[in-house]
Amino acid sequence: MNFINLIRIAFKALLRNKLRAFLTMLGIIIGVASVIAMVAIGQGSKQSIQAQLSGMGSNMIVIRPNSNVTGGVRLDATSVQTLTLNDVVALQKKSTYLSAVSPSATAKGQVIYGNNNWSTTIQGVNNFYLDTIRQWSLTAGNEFTDKDIASEAKVCLLGQTVVTNLFTNGENPVGKYIRFAQIPFLVIGILSPKGANAFGQDQDDIIIAPYTTVQKRILSTIYFQNIYASAKDESSTVQASTEISQILRDSHRLKSTDDDDFAVRTMEELINTFSSTSQLLTILLAVIAGISLLVGGIGIMNIMYVSVTERTREIGLRMAIGATGWDILLQFLTEAIMISITGAVIGVMLGITASKLVTLFLSWPTLITEFSIILSFMVCVITGVFFGYYPAQKASRLDPIEALRYE
Amino acid sequence: MSNKILELKNIKREFIMGSETVRALKDVSFEVATGEFVTIMGASGSGKTTLLNMLGCLDKQTAGIYLLDGVDVGKLSRNELAHLRNNKIGFVFQSYNLLPRTSALENVELPLMYNRAVKTKDRKDRAVKALEAVDLANRLDHKPNQLSGGQQQRVAIARALINEPVMILADEATGNLDTKASFSIMALLQELNQNHGKTIVFVTHEPDIAEFSSRTITLKDGKVIKDHVNENKKNAKDALAALPADDEA
Fold first, then answer.
1. Chains A, B: CB contacts under 8 A, how many?
2. CB-CB contact of A207 with A159 (8 Å)
3. Do B99 and A9 touch (CB under 8 A)?
4. Each residue's pLDDT tens digit, A272-305
5. What is residue B31's predicted lDDT score, i.e. its pLDDT?
6. Nearest CB neighbour to A322, from listed B78, B102, B114
7. B135 three-class SS
8. Kind of pairing, strands B4-17 and A60-65?
9. Which of A330, A393, B26, B79 has its CA 20 to 30 A from that of B210?
10. Region of residue B69 (left: phi > 0; alpha: psi -120 to 50; beta: else)
């Protein structure tokens, strides 16, 4: 029997029992739809967790100068200055794992506005620091521009704690001048509140300014205390830190025998938390997917089994008019596969619709991945073959004489 | 040799039922030539059904030789038997055995689905021709439940004809039909036999049906007890015309 005939025979047999075919499919439809929807919800929350963790800086990499030995005296790391703009440029140009690089120059001091003053830190960075590395948005005003950086402009962005302590009357800080180290700075924006970091340090107690301004006007140096970088994603932080070391060693012209005069730090703890969370989620979803498809598969097997018994005479007739056992086996197997494929197609559509509805009505983030669609489809077809085989084999082994007389 | 469709030589068929051996056929031998219309008669338990299963290549003999159109059936595998049934035999059953919820046309096409040699294009044409041959050209799309018993049996005969078999094997084909429909089926079979030269082997236990055939083989207790040519074969068409036309007005 050729393939087209096989499909045609199986298709016609299914059409003769539309309701039963549909009910059989229902198990698969619900299985696939729930897998797609679950995975979409899982991936969606994974993505939003990922975004939150990135906001916390899970893929942030901090480069500091390392303590080195000068004349036999080991100096404190902060007193050693090795990082320059050349390093930043080298990293920006050569790295393949980094999405952003920003220099950082910080100074402590007293900030004054009107009658109020407050002890805080001013941090000089570039725009990547806020946009990509920290993912820190503004509640008011604008970020500084490349032109501000080039011109060492005396502009700044204020953290919420600084705003609360300086602007006690509740006036709008944007457009006002504050003084830091006797230098007047124009407030051009307010940072959104970030709260305390993992070590209880208030992240909002800060003033952000162009790095050139802090470096030249306040610190009068060509060095940076830190370079911040952001890996493209959590999983590539390790490769990124190796790459950074290589680039900086080249940039600092270190001999292979020399120790690094810098240190690269990643947020490993955060990364581990993140990967264990998403791994747990994935396992959970895989289990749900497995169970629902198993139930669907048993449904197919059940119906195919009943179907073989019910259609014993039909099988006998087909054998009498020339169908071989193999033909009968393939027919029932094809029916099972057709049920599972059709069920899978409907299930995929239903699952996508359900995910969209979840986002629409519950505003849960969902992300439909091709992987989940392909996987559930494959599992379905395999289920169809696996659970269809036994009843099909039973049908193919019937004795035509008995099958024809079966009541 | 070529005009012998069936050759049975000392056929024996035994079944083992627990500790007992049931000898359903004991040393059966006969030949059927091309174009014969043979009825096989016998009471129940005479081995009729066993013989039919064997003739239809659904079963194999325990001993003896069975040649169907020159092919030694006893030596074939299960799959080869299936192909033989497909190519050489057209079955007509007592209970029609049409696929439910399937049009007459598709039912008739069915044997061709299992025949690789037939192209999809030819299949429908041949099915239509077969249905025309049994006078059902206007019932192509009717489902079995929309057809009378006689019409269903005609569809089954069309299905048996479609593969151009060397032999039509009918098993009590008129058993479920009233006299009129029976005669009409017999008239159709006679016509196929006389005008198209189809060899027909018809198993029945009704003597009046056997009168329409050219030869009757009678079985009893697994043996052929009588094998005679019908000198005065009745014409089913005449018998049909002779019936009082009161039932269906």
1. 71
2. yes
3. no
4. 776 677 778 767 877 887 788 788 888 888 888 8
5. 93
6. B114
7. coil
8. unpaired
9. B26
10. left
